[in-house]
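The freezer alarm interrupted the setup, so I double-checked each line after restarting. Inputs confirmed:
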Amino acid sequence: MSMNNVGRPTRPEAANDSAAGHQTLTGARGLLQDEALIFELDGWNKTGVDLPPVTAASSSDLAGLLRSEPIGLPGLSEPEVVRHYVRLSQKNHAIDLALYPLGSCTMKHNPRLNEKMARLPGFSDIHPLQPQSTVQGALELMDRLAHWLKTLTGMPAVALTPKAGAHGELCGLLAIRAAHEAAGNGHRKTVLAPTSAHGTNPATAAFVGYTVVEIAQTEDGRVDLADLESKLGDHVAAIMVTNPNTCGLFERDVVEIARLTHAAGAYFYCDGANFNAIVGRVRPGDLGVDAMHINLHKTFSTPHGGGGPGAGPVVLSEALAPFAPTPWLTHGDNGFALAEHAGDDDAKTAFGRMSAFHGQMGMYVRAYAYMLSHGADGLKQVAEDAVLNANYVKAQLKDVMTPAFPEGPCMHEALFDDRWLEGTGVTTLDFAKAMIDEGFHPMTMYFPLVVHGAMLIEPTETESKHELDRFITALRALAGAAKAGDVERFKGAPFHAPLRRLDETQAARKPRLKWKPVAAAPLAAE
Amino acid sequence: MRYLPLTPEDRVEMLGAIGVKSIDDLFVDVPASARRDAPVDLPHHAGELDVEREMAGLARRNRAAGEGPFFCGAGAYRHHVPATVDHIIQRSEFLTSYTPYQPEIAQGTLQVLFEFQTQVAALTGMEVANASLYDGSTGAAEAVMMAQRVTRKTKAVMSGGLHPHYVGAIETLAHAAGVTTNALPAAVDAEDAVIAAIDQDTACVVVQTPNVFGTVTDVTKIAEAAHAAGALLIVVTTEAVSYGLLKSPGEMGADIAVAEGQSIGNGLNFGGPYVGLFACKEKFVRQMPGRLCGETVDADGKRGFVLTLSTREQHIRRDKATSNICTNSGLCALAFSIHMSLLGETGLRQLAAVNHQKALALRDALKAVPGVEVLTPRFFNEFAIKVPGKAAEVVETLAAHGVIAGVPFSRLDGKAGLDDVLLVAATETTLDIDITVFAKALTKVFAQ
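Predicted 3D structure, all chains:
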């Protein structure tokens, strides 16, 4: 063994067995700490903020209204808090770490410039109800964002307020409902949606009292026109169709779908979750769409933040625009103004209010900074590179995996089924978990529902060819291992994640939804 | 373009591997009538410096709260957020991850959600809390829908102290779903008036404390009346810091507690993104909207966390789901949770006490202004005053003098006949000098 002059070995001894199965004494694994819950860190009497002392507690008005019991909340000093959350953060996969090919979710690079802009005090430190004369820059930003969204979609109006995609769907259906009622067509209570639709589509339709009827799909993964036509009628309020659809395919007959829908007196709601595949190249307004939400956290790259916040502005056709929710942004002699009350003269036909304030301003700032950065030319390139990357992945994997729709190009995501796993003993779930061990986040699994064992891969435009090739090489190797009978690699996976496979059945059977003290209740500070 | 890694050479090589000649060959399914070759009529790409200049130009035309005296509340509050919060939420692993669908590589987010749920349940005094909704107002609307599912009744009674914009958000969703609503007339101190409006069709009663006028109410009697009629009590709170001082909704018999969580960990942001807190009694858990994180074990028996009870949710139950919500307010919930962990019980109680004291000082200063009448009998950090003339005009006049005086009630509801009512709030960020300047400016305006 080599030693330095104080006797410290300078070269590792040759390992005679692999790291697999080696258990540490503390549960930690090198850099990966085994972090307890915040409630288990002995912080019952601590705080990480220094506040001014309270001088005279003159709250006699509140006699009988004050808390009498301890709340039961731990607090920690600042260094302890930083360490707790940084340790936790290291148990997460992230787009900043590696490819995150969740189909339909659009995990692309989140530029940090947008974060910086959203933190300018002129955007982050303004109140939604301070005088409108003091927020003209914020209102102008909303107006410019609206202009970009309308221009990119070729639609005449946009409702900015919805707080996420599903909230946008709700906005669109409420506008459609209001338009039908205004025209004396309130009896129209059916929504048609393909089986491949996102779960939010039927959930939203049911939420506003509509009945959902499914539209069949053709062999090539698109809306079955004949089936659609047979189901349209005087009872149908709207169709909800995703385009590009959840199979990653463009609805070739979309213009005819719109024509049939309009001829039947119904509206065409387009789920715009996949707008990133066509932004700058195709305007939904040219396809006959009446309403479409745009997930700013997908197409326009505002961060997903582990599950939000999102933003779901909805572009609207001339027919639906009068019913958009309040607030409406107007432009008069004194600059920009907000019409905030449905039914008032300045927002007479609005269907109402969707939330307390004006929407997700923090997301508007980020999305607008992203739009300015890319410009019209860059956004077109975004769509083209997203589609190119997906087709490249499909082409490089089609001989080892089975594309669900091999004929023709896909759009921004490549859909595979599990026929190629037949007889291997490996399932789509097993394959996904093995990808974790190879350093990649799994693709979307078992969605859309119309494809057996679905694997939906969306690489996005922000992956380099080098990273795509790394991904393709890993998937080809895994596919080879599955076919070669190396089943244990899949069944036991993941082996190298912070945790092994989790028992979801147990979690649901006896739900434990919060921490409870094991022994005596801790004493809170007075 | 700095965000796009592919080079022109890469693109040519990749098209070749796919077996097509040009990018247009990948867009063949788009109808010819809708294909666009030229970019749309918008500016072309811009460098970071140019974007920063343009955005800064827009930002400069807004008067930030921190620039001077500032007294707006009415559902959004300016508090100091520790630098640690903003640092941690910008870590890549939190900022750039998705909803934790793969729990083995999302334990960071999942443990945070489990801790957040525990914190929210403790603060509201409820048995269970979810992993967040969009904001307080949409949470209130979801609570009404949930009460309809639980009770199988279809009427919601709302107090005159409920924030008018919350009333609006509830009415929009409830009416679409066939739930009738009875919103009582705006009243400073009349949460109890809902009791007389409860009948056998009532699914839920929605009250707010502190209410939109700042009035703090013990709603225990309302809970008893609601329960006697088979209805649920929904208690709304728009200022989460008040939990540090006041009786919790759970302690007063609430079935569902809904709150705007913005005050803790999140900035004003012109109204969003915020974070909806949603908690209820355990027996209603299967009717809850939104994500729930639960504890379980992994294949080696180690403790871990997963999203659970997802058979309530849209991606499984589709048109039978309890809500259509998917993306919620994950990162804002993280900010809330970090700030809460820094505060702890000690810090939160002290923060609440400081807020209350600042508001008492503000009340004393404004009460001394000739023509001002304080309307709110007991409050936390916000109260209503009556001013001579229209409150909206007073606010505009003071804004011209650099004081953001609060929210005129007419901004929330122009038809309540309360045009002379101004809502004012104070927090730990309010300086004594701000209060002095505000009172002096008001005195001057009314003397003119």
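Quick read of the result. Chain A touches chain B through 212 residues (CB under 8 Å).
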